[in-house]
Amino acid sequence: MINLNNPDHKNILIGLTIGISVTLTLQSFFSRLFPTKSSNEPNYKIANGLADLVGNTPLLEIPSLSRLTKRRILAKAEFLSPGGSPKDRVALNIIRHFEAIGALKPGGTIYEGTVGSTGISIALLSNSLGYHAKIFMPDDVSSEKADLLILMGAEVEKVRPASIVDQDQFVNMAKNMSASKEGSVFADQFENEANWRAHFEGTGPEIWEQTGGKVAAFVTGAGTGGTISGIAIALKQRNPAVKIVLADPQGSGLFNKIKHNTMYSHTEKEGSRRRHQIDSIIEGIGINRLTRNFEVGRKLIDDAIKVTDEEAIAMSRHLLKSDGIFIGSSSAVNVVAAVKTALRMPESSSVVTLLCDSGTRGLSKFWNDAWLRKQKYRISDDISFVLN
User: Fold this and answer.
1) N or C terminus of the chain: which is more exposed, having fewer CB within 10 Å?
2) Domain range spanning residue 338?
3) For residue 73, what are the contacts with CB-CB under 8 A and spacing of at least 6?
4) CATH no. for residue 126?
5) What integer pLDDT is reported at residue 142 of this predicted model?
6) What is the pLDDT of residues 287-328, one digit of tens each?
7) What is the DSSP letter of 268?
8) Cα separations (Å) of 365 from 189, 240, 317, 321, 374?
9) Residues in domain Tryptophan synthase beta chain-like PALP (predicted)?
10) Is the per-residue pLDDT at 205 higher than 80?
11) Neighbours of 254 (CB within 10 A)
């Protein structure tokens, strides 16, 4: 017990008082000099340029389809990425790959052949990271895609649709043009493995985390094949029971390859067709050749579903009317196949797909009712024939 009449005790008490006072004074001084956030304050993260915004897109449930199917229909909203598609992930990973090996120099040009979305992603990221973009595309794609590329500062060259065996095909022209340009590169989205790795490292793990590992099936279409391969590898590594399903538009040969291990019918032989897409208004997915990116994950694909143009049209109109979701043609194909996949699975199963494009990319064709009627398409938001 401290005795104040004891000089030694009194001195100890005075010392303790002074020490506490000095400590509190210093604490107050440094808290003003180096303020810290309250635990109640939001932890803001500021992106360091456009590239920092690529990836980590939200996963949303589509209420009307979940009710109709009695399964959870979940969609990764890739159209909310800065460039409006999952090609942002691919373009950024390709650019980082070429930077890492020293092939792409500051101020260099990135050449690519694309029907639109990859070109838009390359154009935006090129502007952000100090490069130029030169894009070759078929002259029959939706006009707004070319218009967007030009507005973004890309140099655009439209070419006649041709088979991949033709050196005047848009991908081959991009490759040939880039060959002699020092410090510039051919992105090569169809064969460059930075494509599937972007989804293996990013999209797939995000889906797993956002679903808490409760994903029964993943469904998507394939153009380059990088998306389905990368996500399939990522999900199957975590749970081999996850079902991977290819959504394929009419006119594409991939459905036959998965279901029957034969790429073409005799009428679809490579080199005989002159258009990139045959008998379909769907853009961005569907192809009649095997790419390196598709081959990486092909053996992990469990099933394939063929989706007609009219099914995609009906689904897009249904989603806009019932859920306020405005999507493009390739997203509509994905959702149709996701619904068909879900109906083959136990009730309450979670099926994930991608909303990989906005309807704004298809205003001149896919969302142009007058144009569709001229092509003899039936326009409706009735999806009952999809559910049967």
Assistant:
1) N
2) 51-81+193-386
3) 61, 62, 65, 66, 335, 338, 339, 342, 351, 353
4) 3.40.50.1100
5) 78
6) 988 999 999 999 999 999 999 999 999 999 999 999 999 999
7) G
8) 25, 39, 14, 19, 11
9) 52-357
10) yes
11) 28
